[in-house]
Automatic annotation (TrEMBL):
Residue ranges, annotated region (Disordered): 47-107
Protein name: non-specific serine/threonine protein kinase
Catalytic function, reaction form: L-threonyl-[protein] + ATP = O-phospho-L-threonyl-[protein] + ADP + H(+); L-seryl-[protein] + ATP = O-phospho-L-seryl-[protein] + ADP + H(+)
Coiled-coil annotated spans: none
Family annotation (InterPro entries): Kinase-like_dom_sf (IPR011009), PknG_rubred (IPR031634), PknG_TPR (IPR031636), Prot_kinase_dom (IPR000719), TPR-like_helical_dom_sf (IPR011990)
Amino acid composition bias (Low complexity), ranges on this chain: 47-59, 68-104
The UniProt record lists the keyword Flavoprotein: no
Length: 765
């Protein structure tokens, strides 16, 4: 026996394969009848190198074995490809193409595979250097009090250095470094790149690392103690920040008493520059980004914020200037305002219009970072005049903002991210990111236009996919998507074993829960709804909301309970609150649409059903049936049919959709083409014989009435039946007799036979 050579395996080889792990015998442990130099392993189709590189034919008996129970797919025969195919055909060894023009495997990162963002060319560092490094007068402000300084007066240009007339603080907007200067004995200055909140930013070469391009960020005023402290703080901990989406800090160097942060050069365009370029291309007219592109940029940069928060850091001063697009990737730059979460003493840097309103009193937090993300997103998509004045801490009204009217979920996302009370915002960046992804999916679906079906299914981390489709009536409370159990809840594993179907017995089992967690209470509330125990439900939901007034899942269950008791108006309010908390989720929209349909708000229900039908294939069928019901009640037959056409053959309710479509066509008018379409709707689906016979009776009866009234048609056929009176009478008689044979009672059978006799055409002898 030869021992298996796989690490950790205790098996031995039998007939060329391990009797434990099933792996093929290697060349170092030759099998009986199999040359040690064999170059092709079963199940791969690719030649493998042997120690002596000698080519040998594999033993045809090597894959035969009397042993059973092996599960390794590597034992299966496979077609030869690559070098294995060359050896098998006896040809000369070709050289495989390296590189290809195909891009189908190189999907762009931006847009999460949902949308496309034009790539930004990687910039030549030398082209980014300012020809004349100066700060425009309109951007000169005192670094201490923020007052305007260095402005022209009476035709005399403003001074680039001096003292603030308001607070007396010294200012100097002249670069302190010149081309050729060497900082820290290592970094040779090439020129100025830009002027930022903390001073000039320079391009330099690292003499010690092959002339690598680096960026030096200096101080606006080395005499400003707050600015200098910020630089020192940055040197102490930012060099430890390491994330692929965050600019890398290399070093901190001194030059003539001033400090400079040395960081990675990131070539590309900032989001602010992209907005500027769009405005210039439009002749000076503000041209915001499309909503899908703005969401894609923010979605891509959010993991960088999550990383900073995880290591106890806050970015503080996020705005469009701080994101660089480089090709199809982005990077977070300018870490000058970053501080530790527990830092209560350092100076706080922020930008008016982006900084959260509470920062001045209580300081920055994770919630204030989320606020800056929301404000940045708003700036990217709105012609946001007044964001530093009228709307400095608010958003424009929905009625005045077309983009909010078009993308309701997007507005709700911004409203929560930019809520005045920090406790009302998203609690974490991960929570925000999940909703941004959902909203992006909806925005892309909306942009595809009316009647577009969902292109994919998406897995939610909060809700199960809907499993019920109802053609004839709105979904019941227990047919709406179920909440997913939070796997991090301490009682999650215990709850997995509570599978009692009887709700009263389930309530009894939940009373013995080892810990009174949120998930236990949510499960108890669900059981209380099923059991009709309003007292238990009210008490449980009250406990949840007392402990956490922001627990939207309690409102969700409250809405389900209100639907179960026939109060859709109250359910509407509950589901609307949930929608505001998780704007990227479709389940609250489907539930709200259901409540609106039941409570006499068909227009709102229709708009929500449309979002659901377009955005996720899991939601298309229940939403399509809702649309068909609303449009049928309105008398809009074409729109009803269009809704039913959204249900795909892969859905179990496809037959119901086709049958309902046929019934609408059969009963809506006497148009012969519509009646022909009714039969065609169900031609290729399997329908219960009695239902198909009933449909044929209805369609052929309506067609006969239409021909008797308006005359025959030479072009229309109903299935194989021409639209002429004799043919229709014969076909209808046959359909009635077929229907009679399937009748459940004698009386119904006799009545149908009588109808067949009545419609039968008379013949003369």
């Amino acid at each position: 026996m030869i021992a298996c050579t796989e690490p950790g395996c205790t098996g031995t080889y039998e007939d060329g394969y391990c009797n434990v792990c099933g792996s093929p015998q290697t060349a170092t442990a030759p099998a009986s009848g199999t040359p040690a130099s064999a170059t092709s392993l079963l199940g791969t189709g690719v030649a493998q190198a042997s120690p002596d590189r000698a080519a040998a034919a594999a033993d045809p008996d090597a894959e035969r074995s009397t042993r059973t129970g092996r599960t390794s797919s590597s034992r299966l025969a496979t077609a030869a490809l690559g070098s294995a195919r060359t050896a098998a055909t006896g040809g000369t060894r070709p050289t495989r193409r390296v590189g290809t023009s195909s891009t189908r495997l190189r999907g762009a990162r931006l847009g999460a595979g949902l949308t496309t963002v034009p790539p930004a060319p990687v910039q030549d560092p030398l082209q980014a250097v300012m020809a004349v490094p100066e700060v425009p007068e309109r951007k000169r402000f005192c670094p201490a009090c923020g007052a305007e300084v260095g402005r022209s007066r009476d035709g005399v240009p403003g001074r680039t250095a001096g003292f603030c007339p308001k607070c007396g603080n010294h200012f100097d907007f002249t670069p302190t470094l010149n081309p050729g200067d060497v900082v820290g004995g290592q970094y040779e200055v090439v020129g100025c790149l830009a002027h930022g909140g903390l001073g000039w930013i320079y391009l330099a070469r690292d003499r010690n690392v092959s002339g690598r391009w680096v960026v030096l960020k200096g101080l606006l005023n080395s005499g400003d103690p707050d600015a200098y402290a910020a630089a020192i703080s940055e040197r102490q901990f930012l060099a430890e920040v390491e994330h692929p989406l965050i600019v890398e800090i290399y070093n901190f160097a001194m030059h003539e008493g001033a400090g400079y942060t040395v960081m990675e050069f990131v070539g590309g365009r900032s989001l602010k520059q992209i907005l500027h370029d769009r405005r210039e291309a439009a002749g000076g007219v503000n041209t915001p980004l499309p909503v899908d592109q703005a969401l894609a940029f923010v979605l891509e940069i959010l993991p960088a914020f999550a990383y900073l928060h995880d290591v106890g850091l806050l970015f503080c001063d996020f705005k469009p200037d701080n994101v660089i697009q480089q090709g199809d990737a982005v990077k977070l730059i300018d870490l000058g305002g970053v501080r530790r979460i527990d830092d209560l003493d350092s100076a706080i840097f922020g930008t008016v219009g982006y900084q959260a309103p509470e920062v001045a009193e209580v300081g920055p937090s994770v919630a204030s970072d989320i606020y800056t993300i929301g404000r940045t997103l708003a700036t990217l998509v709105l012609d946001f005049r007044g964001n530093t004045s009228t709307y400095v801490a608010s958003l424009p009204a929905v009625a005045d903002t077309p983009v909010f009217q078009t993308y309701d979920s997007f507005y709700r996302l911004l409203a929560k991210a930019c809520a005045l009370d920090p406790s009302d915002r998203f609690a974490t960046v991960d929570e925000l990111r999940a909703q941004v992804l959902g909203v992006l999916r909806e925005v892309v679906a909306t942009d595809r236009g009316p009647g577009s079906p969902a292109l994919h299914s998406a897995a939610s981390v909060l809700f199960e996919a809907p499993t019920s489709d109802e053609a004839g009536h709105p979904l019941a409370w227990d047919q709406l998507p179920a909440l997913k159990v939070d796997a991090s809840d301490p009682a999650a594993s215990w709850l997995a074993g509570v599978n009692v179907s009887n709700p009263d017995q389930r309530l009894a089992a939940l009373a013995d829960a080892p810990d009174e967690t949120v998930e236990v209470r949510l499960r108890r509330a669900t059981a209380a709804i099923e059991a009709g125990r309003q007292d238990v439900l009210d008490q449980t939901l009250s406990q949840i909301l007392t402990d956490d007034p922001w627990e939207w899942r309690a409102a969700w269950l409250g809405g389900l309970a209100q639907l179960s008791t026939g109060d859709p108006v109250a359910a509407r309010a509950s589901f609307n609150a949930v929608y505001g908390q998780v704007p990227g989720e479709l389940a609250p929209k489907l539930a709200l649409a259901t409540a609106c349909e039941l409570s006499g708000e068909p227009d709102i229900a229709e708009s929500l059903y449309i979002i659901c039908a377009r955005s996720d294939a899991n939601y298309t069928a229940p939403a399509a049936f809702g649309l068909a019901r609303i449009r049928r009640a309105r008398g809009d037959l074409p729109a009803s049919l269009a809704a039913l056409d959204l249900v795909t053959p892969t859905r179990s309710s496809y037959v119901d959709a086709r049958m309902l479509r046929a019934q609408l066509l059969a009963t809506s008018s006497g148009d012969l083409r519509a009646l022909s379409d009714a039969l065609a709707s169900v031609q290729s689906v399997s329908i219960e014989p009695r239902a198909r016979a009933a449909l044929r009776v209805d369609v052929l009866g309506s067609a006969l009435a239409a021909v008797l009234k308006d005359g025959p048609s030479k072009t229309v056929q109903l299935g194989a039946v021409p639209a002429r009176e004799p043919d229709l009478r014969d076909a209808l008689e046959g359909a009635l007799r077929e229907y009679a044979a399937l009748a459940p009672t004698p009386d119904e059978r006799i009545a149908l036979v009588d109808r067949a006799n009545d419609v039968r055409r008379w013949t003369t002898w």
